[in-house]
Specification:
This protein folds into four domains: 3-47; 51-146, Immunoglobulin-like, CATH 2.60.40; 153-183 and 219-369, no CATH class; 190-217, no CATH class. The longest helix is centred in the N-terminal third of the chain and has 22 residues, at 26-47. 26% of the residues lie in helices and 29% in strands. By secondary structure, it is an alpha+beta fold.
């Protein structure tokens, strides 16, 4: 029962007592009028001057990690009769005491993407639930939750795991020349908009102050390419696993010279170099990719040295799309199919990477068998 309803009932008791000459109705009538008024006054005074401050995580966060959340409540004109402090980031509302309070909690975001932080509020109510009032903080907007990265595990039975360029922090990997040897440098030319940073000839820039790029006469300007294909994912969990795998592969390739990242239909290629320049932009873009948001834009690539095609599509279509991109070597990375190992070269973030056999090699073997 709310305060106006209780007061109206009290007035009804008083009117009935006067009308029927029944003094016994006066006592409950007066109580039903005064108690709601006192409750409303107490709640209003408790809210006056009450201050709620909130400190929330800021910037870009990593999925699964814990971040501090703090709430500080300053007392109003009188101690609050009761109520709760509610925050969408808390598991449940916290009961309100009578004085100043400080709440410290840890929050985490289990999945990547944009996440609204909302606003916190304090609701003050009397013990009878007749009256209540609230105060809220300003809306904190939203944050971008980035996909976490995980280490790559090379499989002993896999084909060519070491030659993919992983493990270069410990000196066990293979340098970028091993898969980019087919690229032939033929002098310099003025820089063109959109050229990857890896092709800029920095000594000339330092000497002349003008941007020049290396001219490539064979192959393409991309030695190592990581493509995230969001088309036809088997499910939300599979797409998230593919996103984590793509992020992990990019980060693992940085010591050996970096890589080029393409995320879905995003037209801009992101260059991630050995100094992690470009990594924040690539990580942010991976966090926001959605299922079936468009096929990867690879028309500008030409021929790549090695491509890591990361997909959550478990059908044969993923392999066909991977092979459609001209490259010296193709590595298909997908969520586990229940048979990790064998031909798989590595596993990462719940996915397995397998280097696809060259089509010509398979045909030649078939011909020999015939």
């Amino acid at each position: 029962m709310r305060a106006p309803t209780a007061a109206l009932l009290g007035l009804t008791f008083l009117a009935g007592g006067a009308l029927f000459g029944s003094p016994s109705l006066y006592a409950p009538g007066i109580a039903l009028v005064l108690v709601p008024l006192a409750a409303a006054l107490w709640v209003r005074l408790a809210v006056q001057g009450l201050r709620l401050r909130r400190w929330v995580p800021e910037g870009s966060l990593i999925e699964g990690r814990s971040y501090p959340l703090e709430l500080e409540l300053g007392r109003g004109l009188v101690p609050a009769p009761g109520g709760v402090i509610a925050d969408p980031l808390l598991d449940e509302p916290r009961p309100l005491g009578g004085g100043s309070e400080r709440i410290e909690a840890a929050v985490s975001f289990p999945r990547r993407g944009r996440r609204a932080l909302g606003s916190a509020g304090v609701v003050v109510r009397d013990p009878f639930g007749l009256s209540e009032a609230d105060r809220r903080t300003a809306d904190a907007g939203e944050v971008v939750v980035l996909p976490r990265t995980e280490p790559i595990e090379l499989l002993a039975g896999g084909r060519g795991g070491r030659s993919l360029g992983f493990g270069e922090r410990g000196g066990g990997g293979v340098g970028p020349d091993s898969w980019a040897a087919e690229f032939e440098i033929d002098g310099l030319r003025p820089y063109r908009e959109g050229t990857p940073a890896a092709r800029i000839h920095w000594p000339t820039v330092a000497r002349t102050g003008e941007l020049h790029e290396r001219r490539i006469t064979a192959g393409a300007g991309v030695a190592r390419l990581v493509v995230l294909d969001p088309q036809q994912p088997a499910g939300e969990a599979e797409l998230d696993a593919a996103v984590r795998a793509a992020a992990s592969i990019c980060l693992e390739l940085t010591p050996g010279g970096g890589c080029t990242l393409i995320v879905g239909s995003e037209p801009r290629m992101i260059e991630v170099d050995s100094r992690l320049r470009g990594w924040p932009a690539g990580h942010h873009r991976l966090a926001l990719v959605e299922a079936n948001s468009g096929a990867p834009s690879t028309q500008r690539i030409g021929r790549a040295g090695i491509v890591f095609w990361v997909s959550a599509d478990l059908s044969p279509g993923a392999e066909r799309r991977c092979r459609s991109l001209p490259a010296a070597r193709h590595v298909l990375v997908r969520p586990h199919l229940g048979r990790a190992g064998g031909r798989s070269a590595f596993t990462v973030a719940g996915c397995e990477g397998t280097e696809l056999r060259a089509a010509g090699r398979g045909r030649s073997r078939a011909g020999a068998a015939a």
